[in-house]
Design brief:
Elements: E1 3-6, E2 10-16, E3 19-26, H1 28-36, E4 42-49, H2 58-62, E5 65-73, E6 79-85, E7 92-98, E8 118-121, H3 126-134, E9 141-145, H4 148-153, H5 155-162, E10 167-171, H6 172-179, H7 184-193, E11 198-202, E12 208-212, E13 215-219, H8 233-248, H9 253-270, H10 277-280, H11 284-297
Parallel strand pairs: 1-4, 1-8, 2-6, 4-5, 8-9, 9-10, 10-11
Antiparallel strand pairs: 2-3, 6-7, 11-12, 12-13
Helix pairs in contact: 1-8, 3-5, 6-7, 8-9, 9-11
The structure holds adenosine monophosphate.
The site of adenosine monophosphate has 17 residues, from strand 2 and helix 8.
Length: 301
């Protein structure tokens, strides 16, 4: 069952209490696609600039990602982001962001992608998200992610997008920014009034909350002591969740909760190393082992 994603592909520089990584591969779409590919093949629609270095290309070929929709655009520059984690690694500051090709049009969607049934609009300019959305009017499930930059600077486009998606994934501070509501359950309910049928509020090391038209559910994070770089945790969570949904085809609330468990566990691996290094060194059997541990941990009845 076919899964398609658009979002950012970027060159990241990361400062963390655990070290520093300069000009490494990042971006919401590549983290998402790599994580989702452990469950389902993924089709990618995204652009990088002519400056994109060949040595960052290897991860694109290491996962089950269809690259027909990836464009290296002459005359454009790649998206760049520099972030800094504070002592409490739940806190992150953006030191610099250069949108570059993210502010331009999306590449054309390859003909072979037209039958995609599951669509993920990973964090990127809401203009690009709307562009992809408009091309998949009859998809089974369309889910978007977003962040503070767009909530603050592209509010109207984002509200337009929210009217057209089935689900939204965002973190707790973004839910507060979007709704003015600190309680994530109430914030989630306010977002449901804006259009989506469900909202996942990610709370970093405190897990994730699902607010759904049919009720609400909370999942803890997998207890992790080995946190090196939280970058991409949200995107790999989304990837695991949507990869699981695309594989099993269950879009009910119960299906989404199981899919969130998959997202939680794959995200817990991603944060063990910088950039995509841990995902590159991961296989499905290792993920399933941790998923089993996680399920056993939750067996509270
Ligand atoms: P996460 O840690 O899940 O929020 O995702 C971090 C990734 O998002 C990094 O690899 C960045 O390149 C990317 N990113 C940061 N800011 C933006 C933005 N405004 N739009 C799209 N992607 C972004």
């Amino acid at each position: 069952m076919s899964l398609i994603v658009t979002g950012s592909i970027g060159i990241d520089t990361i400062h963390a209490p655990t070290g520093r990584a300069d000009a490494v591969l990042g971006g919401s779409a590549i983290y998402f696609a790599a994580a989702a590919s452990f469950w389902s093949p993924v089709r990618l629609v995204a652009a990088v600039g002519e400056d994109f270095p060949a040595e960052l290309e290897a991860p694109f070929h290491a996962f089950d990602i269809d690259l027909a929709g990836l464009e290296k655009r002459e005359g454009s520059q790649t998206f760049r982001w520099t972030g800094k984690y504070l002592e409490d690694m739940n806190d992150r500051e953006t030191l610099s962001v250069e949108l570059n090709v993210l502010a331009e049009e999306l590449p054309p969607v390859p003909e072979a992608y037209r039958d995609s049934r599951f669509v993920f609009l990973a964090n990127t300019h809401p203009g690009g998200q709307l562009e992809l959305r408009s091309q998949f009017g009859r998809a089974e499930l369309v889910v978007a992610d977003t962040m503070d930059l767009w909530i603050e600077n592209e509010r109207a486009l984002l509200e337009d997008l929210l009217r057209q998606v089935d689900g939204l994934v965002l973190n707790d501070s973004e839910a507060l920014l979007l709704t003015g509501e600190r309680n994530p359950v109430i914030a989630g309910r306010k977002i449901l009034e804006m259009g989506p049928g469900f909202v996942v509020v990610k709370k970093g090391e405190h897990g994730a909350l699902l607010v759904h038209r049919d009720g609400a559910a909370a999942l803890p994070a997998f207890p992790a002591a080995d946190v090196v770089d939280p970058t991409g945790a949200g995107d790999t969570f989304g990837g695991g969740m949507m990869g699981h949904v695309a594989k099993h085809g269950d879009t009910s609330m119960a299906g989404l909760v199981k899919a969130m468990a998959a997202g939680t566990v794959v995200a817990s691996f991603n944060i063990e190393k910088f950039s995509l290094d841990r995902l590159l060194d991961l296989d499905r059997a290792t993920i399933d082992q941790r998923l089993k541990q996680y399920a056993a941990m939750l067996n509270v009845a």
